[in-house]
Automatic annotation (TrEMBL):
Record protein name field: GTPase Der
Domain EngA-type G: 3-166, 178-351
Binding site for GTP 1: 9-16, 56-60, 118-121
GO molecular function: hydrolase activity
A Pfam family recorded for this sequence: KH_dom-like
Region (Disordered) location: 432-471
Taxonomy, superkingdom: Bacteria
Keyword terms, alphabetized: GTP-binding, Hydrolase, Nucleotide-binding, Repeat, Ribosome biogenesis
Keyword Ubl conjugation tagged: no
PROSITE patterns registered for this protein in UniProt: G_ENGA (PS51712)
């Protein structure tokens, strides 16, 4: 059994800092901002040969309403599934009413609990710890997570309660299979879609822009196919971003896009397509990720409004005609299941393998059907093609004067390759490489000619090997 350790406590007591120390990562966002962590975040660590799983949770104060109440539900769920709870308190604040309330809940739940007093740096530990015996959770453990002081001792002593811990599957938490990122502007329904795809209330959903602050990786399986679902923070326009925490949150979203195999771009049907959606798509395409478009909040729209949305999409998204488009309702589940077929198709298209012979024959057929143009009276020649990379597919074409190919011929090759190879949902990239011209001018301004065999009948040709060497 691999022990699961949940980090719980009031907001801003250092849970995410301790999470990063225990997992030796920077996966959790850390800032002097109460309520930054809102969803359960899982990580793995190891002390010697003993592994463990850590769960970071949102702060619980006991007076939650609205969004804070949803966050608290996630924390209580983490307590229920944990084998051990690190109950964190702030040494500088002393015992608060929220600490007393949460300590009572932990005693009632009957969970193994280690009381952790954080932020003891610069304080008299003996004096500080005396106050926290009032919580009735045993002897408190002093810690300075921001300086990584006491962390190793804390986890080593805690794992002594689990002598039968087994090794962790390396793909268990980081996820395996298709990495699927859900991206879009704030409040378009990304977290609602994640919960609908998982079939459970796994992430916090609230009618407030910016509910999700960090990227959450969730491994799951559907119909025998492994996925890692990534819920991301919404990305607003740059001029509207003022808080430093939101900037880091957006960086985590952009990193999640680069780590994903397929991106589900969520659009709001009531807003149609706005400039920020196009900026996000541009970044996704620059990263070379496969794309599935999902137009959310499609329910309760009139027929006239739906037709107008479709016209706007045809007009503004014509450059994405190779991506599958779905009209969904994440709230009610309408057409959500159809997304998975498009995701699998996009992933297969992005990771296909073709032989050099197959790509070269395909290119030659396209050249015979429509030859490249003449440049200065000379025909551009395309000699052979091969696969240069996958996810996205990169096709490398070798020839002469290929740098002078017009953009129209580039589009002709891309559209033809995409249609014949049946590529759906993934961008495709071309690299054109020219052979070196042996008669090109050198740095001296004179052409560098190749040395061929000596002419027949010449003295050099008649001379033997030793004589030629002397000459």
């Amino acid at each position: 059994m691999t022990p699961v350790i949940a980090l719980v406590g009031r907001p801003n007591v250092g849970k995410s800092t301790l999470f990063n120390c225990l997992t030796r990562t920077r996966d959790a966002l850390v800032a002097d901002w109460p309520g930054l962590t809102r969803d359960r975040k899982y990580g793995e660590g190891k002390v010697g040969d003993i592994p463990y799983i850590v769960v970071d949770t949102g702060g619980v104060s006991g007076y939650e309403e609205g969004l804070d109440l949803e966050m608290a539900e996630q924390s209580y769920a983490a307590i229920q599934e944990a084998d051990l709870v690190f109950f964190m308190v702030d040494a500088r604040d002393g015992v608060t009413a929220s600490d007393l309330m949460l300590a009572k809940h932990l005693r009632t739940a009957g969970k193994k609990t280690q009381l952790v007093v954080n932020k003891v740096d610069g304080l008299n530990e003996d004096t500080v710890l005396l106050d926290f015996f009032e919580l009735g959770l045993g002897e408190p453990f002093p810690l300075a997570a921001s300086h990584n002081r006491g962390v190793t001792t804390l986890i080593t002593e805690a794992l002594e309660w689990f002598p039968d811990a087994e090794p962790i599957d390396p793909d268990a938490l980081q996820g395996s299979g298709i990495r699927l990122a859900i991206v879009g502007r704030p409040n378009v329904g990304k977290s609602t879609l994640v919960n609908r795809m998982l079939g459970e209330e796994r992430v916090v959903v609230f009618d407030q822009p910016g509910t999700t602050m960090d990227s959450i990786f969730i491994p799951f399986e559907r119909e025998g196919v492994d996925y890692t679902l990534i819920d991301t923070a919404g990305v607003r326009r740059r001029k509207n971003i003022t808080e430093a925490v939101e900037k880091f949150s957006i960086i985590k979203t952009l990193q999640a896009i680069q780590q994903a195999n397929v991106v589900v771009m969520v659009l709001d049907a009531r807003d149609s397509v706005v400039e920020q959606d196009l900026h996000m798509l541009h970044f996704v395409l620059q990263a070379g990720r496969s794309v599935v478009l999902a137009v959310n909040k499609w329910d309760n729209m009139t027929l006239d409004d739906r037709e107008q949305v479709k016209k706007d999409l045809d007009r503004r998204m014509s450059f994405m005609d190779w991506a599958d488009l779905h009209f969904i309702s994440a709230k009610h589940g309408t057409n959500v299941g159809h997304l998975f077929a498009s995701v699998q198709k996009a992933y297969e298209s992005a990771t296909k393998q073709w032989s050099t012979n197959h790509l070269t024959e395909l290119m030659n057929g396209l050249v015979q059907e429509h030859q490249p143009p003449l440049v200065n009276g000379r025909r551009i020649k395309l000699r052979y093609a091969h696969l240069g990379g996958r996810n996205p597919p990169v096709i490398v074409i070798h020839g002469n004067q290929v740098e002078k190919l017009p953009s129209s011929y580039h589009r002709y090759l891309e559209n033809s390759f995409r249609q014949i190879l049946d590529l759906r949902g993934t961008p495709i990239r071309f690299e054109f490489r020219s052979g070196e011209n042996p008669y090109a001018p050198t740095t001296t301004g004179k052409p560098q000619k190749k040395r061929g065999p000596a002419p027949r009948g010449s003295a050099k040709a008649k001379a033997g090997p030793r004589e030629r060497k002397k000459r």
